[in-house]
């Protein structure tokens, strides 16, 4: 059965007015907005809360530090009430366990964000991974880190759409699988290496796709987001 896949719009900008305009443009089509390092560092966390407003917030801070620091950071940002929150799986089992515990302690049970572990960035191909010492390719590394995330009690994973099928085969239906590196047919890959179209990602088993520049750099961001949502619904 085809999985229902939602659209998360990545609002990558330093400007709060621009982010607000994009948030309004994508509102009819996107199930959540993603605000991350660029926006939070430039505009601050009050602006993150203001731009998200009532729209579910994917807070993509990709936490990666020692367990104590990551746990404390999660407690610090709990007032933002994100729907999803990211950390790097390569921070290790103890770090992910500490993050999970911090979420349980810092958020009310009915408002705990889904904790998502970033496995292998979608901008990395096998050659780039070899340069970091990972010699058996993105798929093997994603599976390895995905299993570690599940062991730590993480809710889901960020991966490319290329790893969705092996992850579903290995981990089943339960983990939330979120895929950036999405490019509608004919759009520029830019720095993304492991890419798929919205439809391909949905058919491969994504719960959510994350799309940034194909929407925000389009002449009409609202129309670009609507076209992607229509492709997912088809
Ligand atoms: O592996 C990852 C993890 C996160 N991202 C983020 O998703 C968006 C993608 O933006 P595009 O403009 O559609 O390329 C961006 O905010 C990244 O920080 C990712 O691309 N890959």
Automatic annotation (TrEMBL):
Cellular component GO terms, alphabetical: cytosol
Q: Per the UniProt record, which EC number(s) apply here?
A: 4.1.1.23
For this protein, the parts annotated as crossing the membrane are none
**Entry keyword set:** Decarboxylase, Lyase, Pyrimidine biosynthesis
Q: Which SMART domains match?
A: OMPdecase
The record places domain Orotidine 5'-phosphate decarboxylase at: 6-228
Molecular-function GO term, any one? orotidine-5'-phosphate decarboxylase activity
Which Pfam family, any one, appears in the UniProt record? OMPdecase
> Which reaction does this enzyme catalyse, per its entry?
orotidine 5'-phosphate + H(+) = UMP + CO2
The residues the record assigns to binding substrate are: 12, 34, 60-69, 122, 183, 192, 212-213
Which InterPro entries is this protein grouped with?
Aldolase_TIM, OMPdecase, OMPdecase_AS, OMPdecase_bac, OMPdeCOase_dom, RibuloseP-bd_barrel
Q: What residues make up the catalytic site?
A: 60 (for ompdecase activity), 62 (proton donor), 62 (for ompdecase activity), 65 (for ompdecase activity)
Which pathway is it part of?
Answer: Pyrimidine metabolism; UMP biosynthesis via de novo pathway; UMP from orotate: step 2/2
Keyword DNA-binding listed: no
Q: Which GO terms describe its biological process?
A: 'de novo' pyrimidine nucleobase biosynthetic process; 'de novo' UMP biosynthetic process
Q: Highest taxon of the source? A: Bacteria
Stated role: Catalyzes the decarboxylation of orotidine 5'-monophosphate (OMP) to uridine 5'-monophosphate (UMP).
Q: How does it assemble?
A: Homodimer.
Q: Which family does it belong to?
A: Belongs to the OMP decarboxylase family. Type 1 subfamily.
Name this polypeptide is given: Orotidine 5'-phosphate decarboxylase
Q: What organism, scientifically named, is this protein from? A: Acetobacter cerevisiae
In the record, what lineage is assigned to the organism producing the protein? Bacteria, Pseudomonadati, Pseudomonadota, Alphaproteobacteria, Acetobacterales
């Amino acid at each position: 059965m085809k999985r229902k896949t939602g659209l998360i719009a990545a609002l990558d900008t330093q400007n709060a007015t621009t982010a607000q305009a994009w948030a309004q443009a994508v509102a009819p089509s996107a199930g959540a907005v993603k605000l991350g390092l660029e926006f939070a560092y430039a505009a601050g966390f009050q602006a993150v809360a203001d731009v998200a407003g009532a729209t579910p917030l994917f807070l993509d801070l990709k936490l990666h530090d020692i367990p104590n620091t990551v746990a404390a950071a999660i407690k610090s940002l709990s007032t933002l009430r994100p729907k999803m929150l990211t950390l790097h799986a390569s921070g290790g089992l103890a770090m992910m366990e500490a993050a999970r515990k911090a979420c349980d302690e810092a958020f009310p049970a009915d408002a705990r964000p889904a904790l998502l572990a970033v496995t292998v960035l979608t901008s990395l191909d096998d050659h780039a991974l070899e340069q970091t010492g990972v010699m058996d390719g993105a798929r093997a590394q994603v599976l390895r880190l995905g299993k570690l995330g599940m062991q730590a009690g993480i809710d889901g994973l960020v991966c490319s759409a290329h790893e969705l099928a092996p992850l579903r085969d290995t981990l089943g239906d339960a983990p939330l699988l979120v895929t950036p590196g999405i490019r509608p047919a004919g759009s520029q890959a830019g720095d993304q290496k492991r890419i798929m179209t919205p439809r391909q990602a949905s058919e491969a088993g994504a719960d959510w796709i994350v799309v940034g520049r194909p929407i925000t750099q389009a002449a009409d961001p609202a129309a670009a987001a609507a076209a992607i949502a229509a492709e997912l619904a088809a």
